[in-house]
Amino acid sequence: MSEKSDGLIKYELLNTHHEKRSFRSFFEMSLFSLFCVVLSNPLRDPFAIDISEINVIDDHHPRVSIEHLSVGHLKSLINNKKSLVSDSDNLTLWNVEGLAEGNDKWGILEQIVTKELNNETSTKQKLKELGAKVLNSSRLVKNIFSVVPKEHVHIIVETSPPATTGKRRMVEDEEDNRAKKRWQKDKNRFQNLINSLPEINVQDKVFKIPSLPGDKGDMDIYNRECYEYLRNFILNDTKFSRYLITGNPGIGKTFFGRLMLIVLLKKNKKVLLDYEAVTALIYPSGDTEYVSDKVQYRQIAEEQDVWCIIDGKRDQLGHDFSNGKLIMVSSPKKSIIGDFAKQWCVKLYMPIWNEFEVEDCWKNVYCEKVPSESLESLKDKFKLCGGIPRLIFGESLLYIKSAIKQELTSVGPGMLCNQSKDFSGDEYTHKLIHMRTNLEETEVEGEKADPYTGCFCFFGSDYIAYKCLKRLKEKYKEDLRTFIETARDIPEMGSLRGQLFELVSHEILCQGGTFPVRKLTDDGSLGPETTLTLESLEEMFFDDISEIEGNTSQGQNKYYRPTSKIFESIDSYVRYNKLFQVTVAKSHGIKQEGLRAIKGILKDSCRISFYFVLPKDIFETYTKKQKYENKGEGIRIDGWIKGDIDQYALCIDFNKCSF
């Protein structure tokens, strides 16, 4: 037994065979925590002050028991933790009930620090209206907080401002004037936008939008084909209240957000525009209202004729908010879009650019802006990085190649395992892997899928695909093999799996070997399994069949792969009359245009063998002849195609093939 002579605390140390506790650890066990928030603009996160049986205050009060802990002691604990003022006596503590981050009281507190903080008298009055009560320094903490509600803020900390001299007041007035001038400059930009509305035609191929806060200058917007569909869907829809437009960074999502801003203002709607540079309510009349806290934000979003456009940041309303119309444009970073897309939301994918769009945009926008940039150099960039205009129009070929090289060092199993989840910000995945979507209405497992609602992952370009495959083969071959064999159950990964399987299959076929094959039948009955033996061949790419004819006339035999799109449905050719189509799909039509394009090198003296190159799991059930497809209306099958071609399934078994 030991006893403190000042009577603050009596304690007994337990020291048994089973339990040993030091004086310090026993008495510093926290009894409860008081969460505090400092009155500052903006409000910062609440912090905890742990209250124990024995509390170490400072050198003057080394240990104070809970029985004697006063509000004055609590001020010292707070100031020691946060260093708010030189003397803790200059702190004023307010006890408040029902205050929690994000609730209505928190919103009112945000308004207080935004509008009233410079006026001490007004601040105190508003805090009283909030239900807060000043805590006198002599009061005991245990009597004030006999019950401590969890997940609430218990104390508001007010720091007494230093005496304001005339000189200081002049400085503050000058700062206020500068702030007002900056906001007026922003308001002038919004007014300029409103004044320009009659001249902006969002149906034009290219239209200009005046600069808004944070913009370098006016925006020339190339009117992508997808914009019209997305715009009309949002305006005509009656089912959803949230619309998420997502896709790879740098493909025009922000421009679409600005297009919707113009469209809605022209329809006499108010728009709450929320992006990194500013959050403001824009009226069709040109008036603007700066929005500074969540309560005000929510109140505005609930008003009739108000639409929210949120660009590249988390929304401030939470996933439970349903009383308003919200449009978000953002890359698929989960921390941004996760809550927004939980309910009442339709997710629409913006496609990457195709080669025609790049060329058309160059002719209509960049040809005069950047005369030194040739169309051929843009095409070279497109081949390198795929359809990302931010890179194609904004960076050099050397930079793009260097950026890809740098990102390739990050390629590993995680790239394959994690792509079924949302991409994360500006990680390497966006530069290497692109998100494609269905441009037309499609049918998925018997259900209709509207345009732009599907998501499929592809390597950004053939160049990127080869580089990624090379690294995966060198360092992560087993992970690559596992992914190709198992990713069939992940819908978003089917296309990426197909790309990898195609690249690996061409390599295996080039090496030569004996492969299981099965002739396909009209009724899908299982035919006998035989084999096809190929010799080791050198790979050669061709644009025109004349290149093959030149080789074969000299007796050369190679593994020929077309680069031109006119040879659709044909991925490779081996002399004589062996055509190969690599796929991971359970069915795959054969386009007659591709067959007609290669007919000139096929020998009439022997039958034509068309091989579907398949992974083992698909090969086992791939038994029925595939349909021939024809461009345009109606089905017309050429006689030689119908009569001279035999279809086969060919199995690539990774357990038996090396690559």
Automatic annotation (TrEMBL):
Q: Which InterPro entries match?
A: Crinkler_effector (IPR052980), Crinkler_N (IPR045379), P-loop_NTPase (IPR027417)
| A cellular component term, taken from the record's GO annotations | extracellular region
What are the record keywords, sorted? Secreted
- In this record, what's one Pfam family? Crinkler
Q: Which domain of life is it from?
A: Eukaryota
Q: Which organism is it from?
A: Rhizophagus clarus
Protein name as annotated: Crinkler effector protein N-terminal domain-containing protein
Q: Where does it localize?
A: Host cell; Secreted
Q: Which residues form the Crinkler effector protein N-terminal domain?
A: 33-158
Instruction: Name the principal localization, coarsely classed.
Output: host cell
